[in-house]
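Title: Prediction job returns without error message
Component: structure pipeline
Severity: low
Priority: P3
Assignee: unassigned

Description:
Job completed but the reporter wants confirmation the result is attached to the right record. Sequence as submitted:
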Amino acid sequence: MTPPMLIDLHSHTYPISWDSNLTPDQLIDLCKKAGLDGVCLTEHDYFWDVAECAALAKKHDFLVLPAIEVNTEHGHILAYGLTEYKFGMHRVEQLAAMVEADGGVMIAAHPYRRYMPWYHLEGDDLEHGLGKALANPAYKHCVALETLHGRGAPQQNDFSERLRERLGMRGSGGSDAHQPDHVGRCVTRFDGRIASLADLIAELRTGRFEPVDLRPDRQ
């Protein structure tokens, strides 16, 4: 039986993502030390060159896949399978059409943002926040919600999990790493063998994955 694979579907590196202080080499080294099997480079509104990603993977003998985090009018979307930034991608419907045309998939990143009541998670305020989130038109185009966000507080990830349950969707995990101590916090476990971006997309479509929290105090 093929052992499960742990892959970080959400990460950022400097200087492409200006707000990260991790170089690609540092990120990959830390992922390997954390016991992961692969990482997706999801820079802000920027595509990694496929050949450069392949060179990094060969250099480190580690699965490194190119993706992107797109800032849309309905939140941040992780897209897998696209290769270049095009005008109009900030609009969810256009982004979804481009992803479908290229045979890719999308995940909604940190869905608690913009919707979760910041002061508490109960009663009418919680229901109001969930109600607003449920109306987000981006989610119908996504294969999963990022329910375990490595930089999210427990109550924030709990909001995302409640939203996932209401929508009847799958959940994923990602570190959203921007600095060394972020790496390896939250990942996604896959049952199938993944050796390429095509494999990743295929497994995301099957739904044979689940979010995993690797932080010592969450296990």
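Comment from assignee: result matches the submitted record. The chain has one domain: 5-218.
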